[in-house]
Every structure is written in C-alpha cells, then in structure tokens.
C-alpha cells in the first residue's frame, strides 16, 4: 500500500521554522527518525519511508504555499496514489498550539495552501492533519504571524507535538483515518 504525505510550507531559509512551515518540519523529523533523505525532484522535495508494509511517499512542495495543489496533483498521478491515501499536513491558526486534529475532509478555512489543493482537485475530500499554531496576532497581521517563528515559550512543546503528528501519520497509513482520529484527536 502506498500513501502520499504532503507537508505544506514555503521553501527558502527565510521560511524555515516558521508556523506556516510546520508541515515541512514534521516531514523533516519523520525522515530523520527513519534515516531517510529528501531529494529535490519535480515540484517537490521527495523522500520515502517504509512502515509496517506500507510505503509513505513524503513531499514538501517547492511551489510555495499558494500553489501546493500543483505539486500534490503531480505526485498523486506520478505515483498512482488515490486521494483516500493522501494526507496533508497544515498549520491552523484557528486551533491553539498543542491541538492536533485529523479530519477526513473539510473546508480550506481561509488557508491558501488548502484552497489551491481544493481548486486543483475539484473537491476537498482528502485527509488533513491540522496542527494548531495559535492566533496570538493583532487584527490584520495574520500573514506576519504565520510567517514568524514560534515564540520561546512555545518551542519546548514542539518536539512532542511533532512526534505525535508522526504517530498520527503512521496511524493513518495502518489503522485508517477514523481510528486514528478516535485515538489522537483531542
């Protein structure tokens, strides 16, 4: 069984470790834990890991956030992976830091990466792991907030949240969306 795990983010050192790049951060840690490396390929940095007889194809799109659907669509076709075996990792300002929510489908909720994926696919029936990054920003400063790094008091929480996200990815690929949601969503 093959799965496509899409970590959303923006390429470039100025975006590394920002709230908007949590999808990249999760996949970087997963690859590191599994001894895998990312390679620059068509429209994405690509890696793959095996887990319990499944192959997890990991991509970090190089298209920038607002064109994420282009990379996701390409890799789904290239690898012949059906949408029910796709999971998108995304930052969510509507959730407080520490909240992780797996959903089998849903709206883009104003997130430009998800909007582009929805437009490209023509639907929103794909799993997404929403990683809460909080909403501690002044009115109208949302972009600055998601493109900023995590605060010093938030950084100690990140490793455990990233590890929990990795457990949820592995759950998605082995026990499915519903059981993973029951086990991990809170």
Describe this entry's structure for a reader.
The protein is α/β, with parallel strands linked by helices and 186 residues long. It has helices at residues 22-34, 68-79, 112-121, 142-146, 158-174, 177-184, and strands at residues 2-7, 39-41, 44-51, 54-61, 86-92, 100-103, 127-132. The protein has 6 helices and 7 strands; from the N terminus they run βαβββαββαβααα. It starts with a strand and ends with a helix. Belongs to the PTH family. The record marks 10 as: Discriminates between blocked and unblocked aminoacyl-tRNA.
Tell me what portion of residues adopts beta-strand conformation.
15-25%
Tally of helical runs: 6
Structural class: alpha/beta
Overall shape: globular
State the total count of DSSP E strands.
7
Low-confidence stretches: none
How would you summarize this macromolecular structure in one to three sentences?
With 186 residues, the protein is α/β, with parallel strands linked by helices.
Per-chain topology:
Blueprint: E1 2-7, H1 22-34, E2 39-41, E3 44-51, E4 54-61, H2 68-79, E5 86-92, E6 100-103, H3 112-121, E7 127-132, H4 142-146, H5 158-174, H6 177-184
Parallel strand pairs: 1-4, 1-5, 5-7
Antiparallel strand pairs: 2-3, 3-4, 6-7
Helix pairs in contact: 1-5, 2-3, 5-6
Enzyme class: hydrolase
Family: Belongs to the PTH family.
EC number: 3.1.1.29
């Amino acid at each position: 069984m093959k799965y496509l795990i899409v970590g959303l983010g923006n390429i470039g050192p100025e975006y590394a470790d920002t709230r908007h790049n949590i999808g990249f951060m999760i996949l970087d840690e997963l690859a590191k834990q599994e001894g895998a490396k990312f390679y620059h390929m068509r429209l994405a940095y690509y890696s793959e890991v095996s887990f319990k007889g499944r192959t997890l194809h990991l991509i970090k799109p190089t298209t920038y956030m607002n064109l994420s659907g282009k990379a996701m669509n390409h890799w789904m076709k290239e690898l012949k992976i059906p949408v029910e075996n796709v999971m998108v990792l995304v930052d969510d300002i509507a959730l407080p830091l520490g909240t992780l929510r797996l959903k089998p489908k849903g709206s883009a909720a104003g997130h430009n990466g998800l909007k582009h994926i929805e437009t490209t696919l023509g639907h929103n029936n794909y799993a997404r792991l929403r990683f809460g990054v909080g909403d501690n920003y002044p009115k109208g400063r949302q972009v600055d907030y998601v493109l900023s790094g995590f605060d010093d008091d938030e950084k100690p929480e990140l490793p455990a949240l990233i590890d929990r996200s990795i457990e949820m990815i592995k759950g998605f690929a082995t026990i499915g969306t519903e059981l993973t949601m029951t086990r991990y969503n809170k």
